[in-house]
Task: inverse folding
């Protein structure tokens, strides 16, 4: 897919374009039904006018930090339900396993996706100063994830000395030297997906434009939660 993206970018660059173009930047107000907490982001766009109705466009986008609410630990004694031991409810993107007769949750705690894109923008003139458009781009994105391990309810196991008597040294601590939770660096994930946008461009001056866009993308990768991000971005463009 990376090779396809490179080939697609070369094709775009090889298309005949007018000398006119634009450069702009703005903020994106993001939301997601797939992720519990989603921050706002930033994007930079630049492009060239192929015709009055078609632009080549490239973008650098930072989608902002994303995070999942941590699951809720439920003790078998407190649940009131007929469950087989302790458990976790309201799981994010993770899995459960049992160790030492206690439940352990391992999953993604947070992530931060960024990317670069290349695509086409199709414009329709409403009047001399207002345009509506639809955009379709290929986005190469990457994210560094942070992993979390939760093990509430786990009891300490003490090491024994040569005589078989317990010592004060706990043998079943996690990597963070405690019994309940531990954060660690997760995987670096990268992939390529289609990124779509619809919006308007208002030009109070020939050289200055105000741009507003609704965009949507679904991030898909192996061992990564399929996450749909929606954004409403606003910014300024300099046209030349």
Result:
């Amino acid at each position: 897919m990376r090779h396809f993206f490179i080939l697609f970018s070369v094709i775009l660059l090889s298309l005949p374009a007018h000398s006119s173009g634009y450069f702009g930047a703005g903020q994106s107000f993001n939301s997601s039904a797939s992720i519990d907490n989603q921050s706002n982001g930033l994007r930079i766009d630049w492009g060239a006018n192929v015709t009055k109705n078609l632009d080549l466009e490239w973008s650098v986008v930072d989608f902002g930090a994303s995070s999942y609410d941590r699951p809720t630990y439920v003790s078998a004694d407190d649940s009131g339900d007929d469950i087989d031991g302790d458990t976790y409810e309201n799981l994010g993107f993770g899995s459960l396993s049992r160790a030492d007769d206690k439940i352990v949750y391992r999953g993604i705690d947070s992530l931060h996706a960024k990317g670069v894109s290349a695509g086409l923008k199709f414009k329709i003139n409403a009047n001399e100063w207002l345009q509506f458009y639809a955009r379709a781009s290929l986005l190469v994105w990457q994210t560094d994830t942070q992993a979390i391990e939760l093990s509430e309810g786990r009891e300490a196991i003490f090491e024994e000395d040569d005589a078989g008597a317990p010592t004060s040294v706990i043998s079943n601590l996690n990597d963070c030297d405690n019994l309940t939770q531990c954060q660690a660096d997760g995987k670096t994930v990268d992939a390529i997906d289609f990124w779509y946008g619809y919006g308007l461009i208002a030009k109070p001056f020939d050289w200055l434009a105000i741009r507003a866009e609704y965009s949507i993308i679904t991030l898909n990768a192996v061992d990564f939660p399929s996450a749909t991000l929606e954004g409403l971005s606003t910014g300024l463009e300099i046209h030349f």
Remarks:
- The chain is about 5% helix and 65% strand.
- The two ends are 33 Å apart (CA to CA).
- The first helix runs from residue 2 to 14.
- The first strand starts at residue 21 and ends at 31.
